[in-house]
Amino acid sequence: MLLGDDFNVGVAYGVGTFGSSDVAVTGGIGFGYAGSDFSKNAVGMLGFERRVSGSIKLISENYYLPIDGGSLLASAGIRILGKSLTGDIGLAGLLVGHDEALCCLPLLSLSYAFGRMP
Prior knowledge:
By secondary structure, the chain is mainly beta. It has one domain (25-112). 0% of the residues lie in helices and 69% in strands. The chain contains no helices and 8 strands. The chain has strands spanning 9-19, 23-34, 37-38, 43-53, 56-65, 71-81, 85-96, 100-112. Strands 1, 2, 3, 4, 5, 6, 7 and 8 form an 8-stranded antiparallel sheet that branches. A hairpin with a 5-residue loop joins strand 5 and strand 6. It is globular. The N and C termini lie far apart (39 Å).
C-alpha cells in the first residue's frame, strides 16, 4: 500500500436517485476522512438525466467542493444507449471560488454490459 497499512483515506457518502428511466434526478452528500478524522465540510452532488429519444439521453453531473470558499465542478453531455454498449460524451468546467474558472474539459466514457440483458 502506498500510504502504509494504517493510513485510511476515503469518502463516506450517501446518494439517491429519484425518477424513471426517462427522467431522473440524483443527489448525494459526502464527507472526506483520513484515519479517524472526518472533514467538517461536505461535498455535494446533483445530477440530472432526460431521455430525448429511444437511445439518447441528456445528462449532467455537478459537484460542490468545499475548497477556496466553495467551488463547483459542472458537466453536461449526451449519453448514447446501445443494447450492450453505452457511451457518454460531454464537457466539464470548474469554477474555483468566485473568480477563477477553467473551461472546458472533454469527457468520454464507454460501458459494456457482459452477458444477457433481461
